[in-house]
Design a protein that fits this description.
With 124 residues, this protein is mainly β. The protein contains no helices and 11 strands. The protein has strands at residues 3-7, 10-12, 18-25, 32-39, 46-51, 58-60, 68-73, 78-83, 92-100, 113-114, 118-122. Strands 2, 4, 5, 6, 9, 10 and 11 form a 7-stranded mixed beta sheet that branches.
Length: 124
């Protein structure tokens, strides 16, 4: 049974920081591209960032570059999203996802497994 569990969400003021974590189980973790997506109420789920099996290749959405950074620890089956200089526009439910691929994956349909999501709220 594949399971992805996010944690670390919460409330933060604009300019603040959070680190999201995703614990993966039930899959050969190093073989999967891991990604983060987010969805605000009434909006489409959108790509945030992804990292390949070795962690040496990453891609980030233009809207989060230089503020949100993805990383992974294959020895612990964990993937992280470090979130700095947060803006109200970053408010959303953030989802961890896994895609079986040899290259980085951006489209939502490329990911076969999803976590339950964790809420991030940025406001004064």
């Amino acid at each position: 049974q594949v399971q992805l569990v996010e944690s670390g969400g919460g409330w933060v003021q604009p300019g603040g920081s959070l680190r999201l974590s995703c614990a993966a189980s039930g899959l050969p973790f190093s073989r999967y591209v891991m990604g983060w997506f987010r969805q605000a109420p009434g909006k489409e789920r959108e790509f945030v960032a992804a990292t390949n099996w070795g962690g040496g290749g990453t891609v980030h959405a233009d809207s989060v570059k230089d503020r949100l950074t993805i990383s992974r620890d294959n020895t612990k089956n964990m993937v992280y999203l470090q979130m700095n200089s947060l803006k109200p526009e970053d408010t959303a439910v953030y989802y961890c996802a896994a895609a079986l691929s040899s290259t980085l994956v951006v489209p939502i349909r490329g990911y076969g497994y999803w976590g339950q999501g964790t809420q991030v709220t940025v406001s004064s």
